[in-house]
Design brief:
mainly alpha, TolC family protein, signal, elongated, 90 residues
């Protein structure tokens, strides 16, 4: 019951504020989004995700995985095969 007494005035104020927009309200005009690379080939040339998938840990700016992960990724046969298959699938 205490919670109802606490929240009732706030809910009443919010309900009344929701009615503040009158019937003469007109939404502002917004321009359509302009996509510079509308063509699929241009979009692929502008952003090549395959370059970043192999070094995904660098996006976290953590100094630990870099020296550990890069040599392992180069030597680990299963990872090289997985990266090759991923690249071939794209």
């Amino acid at each position: 019951m205490n919670h109802l007494k606490l929240w009732a005035p706030s809910l009443l104020v919010l309900a009344l504020a929701a009615c503040a927009v009158g019937p003469d309200y007109q939404a502002p005009h917004t321009a359509a989004a302009h996509l510079a690379a509308a063509d699929a080939q241009q979009a692929k040339a502008a952003f090549d995700r395959s370059r970043f998938d192999a070094i995904w840990w660098r996006q976290f700016d953590d100094p630990i995985p870099g020296p550990v992960g890069e040599p392992v990724a180069g030597r680990h046969r299963e990872l090289r095969v997985a990266f090759a298959r991923l690249k071939a699938a794209r």
